[in-house]
């Protein structure tokens, strides 16, 4: 009996990035139904990536970690000798590294073994499996949520990301300063032109800084989320009617999981500080 080809997707980063990689894997499953699928979570054993591997903490998704043997088999092509062998014998590498930050449909159909290393931050990879993702995340939730929160009507989530965007020099150069105070002022003014009497729920990893610097919030009905778990904030964001997000994959997912058919999602025009081209932002979201 012919053995099935294997596909491995590396999981890395915080919860938002991990959800992108899970969603990409879900799309691969649909497009390559005869493959076996695995994840590689070994990075979390060697690199301090935010809070570690969180998908398993919050969801039962049936993701199978690849064995050391499978990972070695599929990543063997990284070293120089393997590259020379491929050149001589015309072999194709099974180790696939995402190039650029834009959608590439060539990645979605695989005719051999493959190990995928990348961020896959585009809805275009998994838009066709949105319903499956929503259902899996809903039915797979494996924790008891303690949402100490009285949900106001006509709610708007407003996410302010600071933390490592400002404490980590490389992150700051890449992502810091994009969503400044003026961005949030403009976003709220834009919402006011479309809806009235809404309530703002602020989500931030530095609430005290927001209270000090966002004086304009005094003009609105504001509630601050005080949940201790990332998953609780993520779910609260998704239950708001509308969303104002930061250039953060965490609030991106809070907005994308929002199932309000009339939702307004406001996001920054540029995701990266250097305006690197990306298609992380869905076409119907409002950029400012």
In short:
The chain is α/β, with parallel strands linked by helices and 288 residues long. It has twelve helices and ten strands.
Descriptive report:
By secondary structure, the protein is of the alpha/beta class. The chain folds into 2 domains: 6-140; 155-287, Rossmann fold, CATH 3.40.50.11350. Helix content is 35%, strand content 14%. The chain is built from 12 helices and 10 strands. It has helices at 15-31, 43-46, 55-58, 68-75, 80-89, 130-140, 164-167, 169-175, 181-192, 207-213, 230-239, 249-256, and strands at 6-10, 36-40, 95-97, 114-117, 155-160, 199-204, 221-224, 242-244, 265-267, 286-287. The strands form 2 sheets. A 6-stranded parallel sheet has the order 7-6-5-8-9-10, sandwiched between helices. Strands 2-1-4-3 form a 4-stranded parallel sheet, with helices on both faces. Helix 12 links the parallel strand 8 (242-244) and strand 9 (265-267). Helix 1 (15-31) packs across helix 12 (249-256) and helix 11 (230-239) packs across helix 12 (249-256). The chain starts with 5 loop residues before the first strand and ends with a strand. The model has no long low-confidence stretch (mean pLDDT 88). GO terms for molecular function: galactoside 2-alpha-L-fucosyltransferase activity. Pfam families: Glyco_transf_11.
């Amino acid at each position: 009996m012919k053995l099935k080809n294997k596909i491995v997707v590396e999981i890395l980063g915080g919860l938002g990035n991990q959800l992108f990689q899970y969603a990409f894997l879900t799309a691969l499953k649909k497009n390559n139904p005869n493959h076996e699928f695995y994840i590689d979570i070994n990075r979390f054993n060697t690199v301090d990536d935010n809070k570690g591997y969180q998908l398993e903490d919050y969801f039962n998704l049936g993701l199978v970690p690849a064995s050391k043997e499978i990972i070695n088999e599929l990543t063997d092509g990284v070293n120089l000798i393997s590259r020379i062998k491929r050149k001589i014998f015309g072999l194709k590498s099974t180790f696939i590294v995402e190039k650029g930050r834009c959608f590439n449909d060539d990645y979605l159909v695989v005719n051999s073994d493959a190990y995928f290393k990348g961020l896959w931050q585009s809805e275009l990879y998994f838009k066709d499996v949105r319903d499956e993702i929503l259902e899996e995340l809903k039915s797979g939730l494996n924790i008891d949520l303690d949402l100490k929160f009285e949900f106001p009507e006509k709610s708007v989530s407003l996410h302010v990301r600071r933390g490592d965007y400002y404490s980590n020099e490389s992150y700051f150069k890449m992502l810091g300063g994009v969503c400044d105070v003026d961005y949030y002022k403009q976003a709220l003014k834009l919402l006011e032109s479309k809806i009235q009497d809404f309530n703002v729920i602020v989500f931030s990893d530095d609430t005290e800084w927001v209270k000090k610097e966002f004086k304009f919030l005094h003009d609105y009905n504001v509630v601050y989320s005080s949940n201790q778990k990332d998953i609780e904030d993520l779910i609260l964001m998704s239950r708001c009617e509308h969303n104002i997000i930061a250039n953060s994959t965490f609030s991106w997912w809070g907005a994308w999981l929002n199932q309000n058919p009339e939702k307004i999602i406001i996001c920054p025009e540029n995701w990266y500080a250097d305006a690197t081209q990306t298609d992380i932002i869905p076409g119907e979201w409002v950029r400012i």
